[in-house]
Give the backbone structure.
Amino acid sequence: MNRMVNTSQLSGCASESAEKSERPLIRERGQHEVFCGLTSIIWLHRKMQDAFFLIVGSRTCAHLMQSAAGVMIFSEPRFATAIIDERDLAGMADVHEELDRVVEQLMKRRPDIRMLVLVGSCPSEVIKLDLSRAAERLNRVHAPQRRVISYSGSGIETTFTQGEDNFLAALVQEMRPEEACDKASLIVVGSMADVVEDQMRRIFSGFGIDRVSFLPSRNSEELAEVGPNTAFVLAQPYLGATAQALERRGARWIPALFPLGEEGTTNWLKAIADYFEVDPDRFDSIVEPGRNRARQAVAKYREVLEGKRIFLFPDSQMEPSLARFLQNEAGAEIIEVGSPFLHRHHVSKELAQLPDSVVMSEGQDVDRQIDRCRAANPDLIVCGMGLGNPFEAEGFSTKWSIELVFSPIHGYEQAGDLAELFARPINRRGRLEVDV
Ligand code: SF4
């Protein structure tokens, strides 16, 4: 559900210079408005074709999933909610039995499930349940033919993209150790549209890098092997827990910008190419056509976006990368970049691209942020759905951040679509004003 959490005892705005070289950062711990981690199941269940996500939650969780992914009721869905009613601690033994019974029924009815994912939520009855222990117990019955894993999508701990981070970190535990091989392998970490993965694969193959896997894989049996000869690159900026889990398994992180827009994609591919010692001329000849297509596609929207003042509320954690793209490639002026949580290490290259005049904020105190936004009077507000309509009613143009997670926006071929997503609401408002 779209939550308004009041943590007023922690509320407050603290402006501070974290480290000498870092820009001033507003840290807020007040009311925040973001979707919870369960929401990520909507794109994750489409990625991993043989996984089933069983949310252990309340009626609220079931309603969220049903309304957010309503179309699924017409097909055999690959997620469901096991509703846990109010229990005291003494009733927990029954809950475990009930969960085992639900899983048993599900496994019988759906032989296509190869990986069952138990997803924790935030009702107190669920917090009392140890889902990792439940997964261990269920694995004793169903593994190795079918694996059971668990992670938390609870709204208390996670924003919507952190649900993916927790899922991928749990998948890392399932990866086999790499077999001895002289050739280094690459894992691309973070959900991207299948069409984008296919484009990336063709580019890697042009570079001569053939041991490439994607996390999440399209099916649970294709999970990559991992070890000291594995390098990984992040395709999404919200994957701190997953990166740590891979590093604990010996894999090495390749730092880069994120592959959004021509500049981000080129920097990301160059970092990979350098790690794998790809000849620079070969690199240029492979990427040049894509770079040109991306530049031309973005140029079509530059005339709409150039000079536009944009305010990004914290939502997907992609905000620093989006701001860099909007500023460097579309010529927009960025006013504030909010992020629910900043993985400073992973986004340091993105932040270095933004001038000191851009306000950075981490966390949220939504009323204060709304006041800052209104005072700045931006041309476009990038925000969650809960804020979008009220801002539209006040006459602002808005873009829902969640659309950026559901749309293919990575890589050269999608750079124009990414620019178009921001240009569309500005064009629409322009048309409305003319019509009125
Ligand atoms: S996990 Fe928590 S925030 Fe998310 S839908 Fe369930 S009750 Fe709401």
Confidence is low (pLDDT under 50) at residues 1-21.
